[in-house]
């Protein structure tokens, strides 16, 4: 259903793209089968071999479901461009988990207005500042090359590939061996005041006190 939006409405239309994507993710929750849970139970009986089979099954299920998503998205278009084309790099990412499991990993979604604003800025090509704070894992411990193969660098690269029009600047403010209580006292030093998207990772350092 091609839709020719007048120029002043284009920005709003692009914001809708982001909303549509998030809505489709939310919709995945309803359409997702109980497959993953069922598969895990089956695997428990089969030992290690079963575990591998479950992983493979989950991966296949994930790919099938993401393909179905892309197929549904392909029918929507804005400014004469299919939404799947616009969001292609994001959607063609090789997801290892079915959409239902990705959905489950989100503890609290909230109204997400600020996150939607960031996605909108990424799509229309604005300057977006991305930061990270956390412990050694985020700093890059055990990565083959800090600044290139640590997870934050990989996520940053992914964002640049997925949103080539945006000017994405990144800053990794993680400090090895520090809990969030310490970072809390010096946030201004490690996080830019105008950061748009901040990743926070304190699972290991806050969880190891017990
Ligand atoms: C991206 O933003 C930074 C910070 O504002 C600026 O210095 C840089 O020139 C921009 N790059 C491009 C390609 O616009």
TrEMBL record:
Residues 32-54 are annotated as: Disordered. SUPFAM superfamilies: SGNH hydrolase. It comes from the Eukaryota. GO terms for molecular function: hydrolase activity. The keyword rRNA processing does not apply. Keywords: Hydrolase, Signal. Residues 1-28 form the signal peptide. This is SGNH hydrolase. It comes from Monoraphidium neglectum. The lineage of its organism: Eukaryota, Viridiplantae, Chlorophyta, core chlorophytes, Chlorophyceae.
């Amino acid at each position: 259903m091609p839709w020719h939006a007048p120029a002043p409405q284009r920005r709003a239309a692009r914001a809708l793209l982001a909303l549509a994507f998030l809505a489709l993710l939310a919709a995945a929750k309803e359409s997702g089968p109980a497959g993953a849970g069922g598969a895990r139970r089956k695997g428990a009986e089969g030992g290690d071999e079963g575990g591998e089979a479950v992983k493979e099954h989950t991966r296949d299920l994930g790919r099938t479901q993401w393909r179905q998503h892309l197929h549904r998205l392909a029918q929507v278009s804005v400014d004469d461009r299919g939404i799947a084309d616009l969001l292609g790099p994001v959607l063609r990412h090789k997801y290892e988990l079915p959409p239902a499991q990705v959905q489950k990993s989100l503890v609290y979604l909230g109204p997400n207005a600020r996150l939607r604003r960031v996605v909108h800025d990424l799509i229309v090509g604005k300057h977006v500042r991305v930061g990270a704070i956390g412990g050694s894992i985020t700093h890059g411990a055990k990565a083959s090359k800090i600044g290139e193969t640590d997870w934050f660098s990989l996520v940053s690269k992914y964002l640049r590939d997925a949103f080539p029009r945006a000017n994405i600047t990144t800053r990794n403010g993680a400090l090895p061996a520090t809990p969030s209580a310490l970072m809390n006292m010096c946030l201004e030093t490690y996080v830019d005041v105008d950061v748009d998207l901040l990743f926070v990772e304190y699972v290991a350092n806050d969880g190891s006190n017990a």
